[in-house]
Amino acid sequence: MRKKSSSLSLFKLLQGVFRLSLKYPMLLLVVLVLGLGSYGYEVKIARPALLYQGEPRPIDFKNSDTWFRILRNHGFILGYSDLRGNPLWVEYALTDQIADTPSMKRPNHFETDWRSINRVSHESYQKSGYDRGHMAPNYAMSHLYGREGQADSFLMTNITPQKPKLNQQVWQHLEEAEIKYFAKLFGKVWVITGPVFSGSVERLKSDPMVEIPDAFFKIYLTETAPNKPPTALAFLIPQTVSGKEPLAQFLTNIDSVEAQTGIDFFTELDDRIEEHVEAAIEPLSWGLPAVDKVSVHH
Questions:
Q1: Is 0.90 topped by the overall pTM?
Q2: DSSP H or E segment with residue 186
Q3: Are 9 and 1 in contact (CB under 8 A)?
Q4: Which pLDDT band holds residue 39 (cuts at 50, 70, 90)?
Q5: In this protein, which residues make up the domain named ENPP1-3/EXOG-like endonuclease/phosphodiesterase (predicted)?
Q6: Which of 54, 109, 164, 219 is the most buried (most CB within 10 A)?
């Protein structure tokens, strides 16, 4: 009854606005101007602040599997697929200031994103055999962007199904490495992460709106500086990990991630720089051998 009442109230509100616009045409003009201004702010200012070198784009716009809606949050931005019940990519920036902020208590419940069409919920994953895997990490979002950043990281549009050994071991190792090593090494690092789908479509038995990925990617990129091109590091990690593998085992390049996801990243990067950066595999620049030697406590 609550949903029906809410829908009725919304209808009455819209009806009232329509009647007012007929009676006062200037009111309609003001509403249109405000709407266009809000859209302009979103596209020209708010989104670019959370993106590095342009918005990711589907390589083939005819392929509906790579369609997404861009959702902006506190501290991160993502492209969400209502068809797959997954974020196809999530982007955020890490800085070396992350260790200087206090820890926050972890929420015990994930929230349905009011912007999602499929209404994936906390309960969608119950008894599924899969963890609710954060793409924008709780630790980083809470430390860098406070309570609001943490709350947004617990929206289900930021979550994707991960097997426990991946989520709780290899993925956690990588999240700790990006905070404790990569961000400190470069001062600021941009991260794009998300799921990879291949082969036959498999969905959660607990909620068929959620497709199960076969693997996950993470791309790290430093910012360009005068006479200093960006440096990239990319990983492609399958769901089938045992949990004890070194991160170096999953090294790849951005070109490979783009080919498997069907998404073009860093679309505004200079073509000459992009060609080199996206083909490179340079773990030594990121100190990966030393990271893999460190025992990470889970």
A1: no
A2: helix 183-186
A3: no
A4: low
A5: 73-272
A6: 219
What are 78-115's pLDDT values in tens digits?
999 999 999 999 999 999 877 667 778 899 999 999 99
**Distance set, CA 167 to CA 17, 37, 47, 163 (Å):** 48, 41, 28, 6
User: Tokens 């996801």 identify what position?
Assistant: 261
User: Among residues 59, 56, 55, 82, which one has the least CA distance to residue 262?
Assistant: 59
Separation between Cα atoms, residue 281 and residue 270, nearest integer Å: 19
Q: Which overall architecture, per CATH, does domain 53-293 show?
A: 3-Layer(aba) Sandwich (3.40)
Minimal CA–CA distance to 193: which of 91, 266, 108? 91
pLDDT over 90 (residue 152): yes
pLDDT tens for 253-289 read 999 999 999 999 999 988 888 888 999 999 999 999 9
DSSP-derived letter for residue 111 is: B
Beta-carbon neighbour count of residue 274 at 10 Å?
21
Q: Please identify which residue in the block is written with the tokens 């342009």.
A: 54
Say how far apart CA 147 and CA 269 lie, in whole Å. Answer: 33
